[in-house]
Fold:
Amino acid sequence: QVQYAESGGGLVQPGGSLRLSCAASGFSFGEAIMTWHRQPPGQAREWVATMFPGGATFYTDSVRGRFTISRDDDTGTLWLQMDSLKPEDTAVYYCQEANSPTWGQGTQVTVSS
Structure:
């Protein structure tokens, strides 16, 4: 059974940082293409970042240079380091194996002064 448990969200001021974690289980994490998505309030869910098993990373334009995706294949953990946060980064953040039909509960990130 595929499961994702996201954590690390919270309220942060503009310019601040947060580190999101995702504990994933139920599939071969080390072989999986892992992604972060987010859903801003009142908007559709959108892709944020992807990390391939070999280490290649890709980011949506709005977060490139500010967010960093990383992973630990031994523990099945995915992270998203978010720096220089902006109010428009406010969203519920989700991790997922690419193209999986399963989603976790997500973790809320609110960027506000």
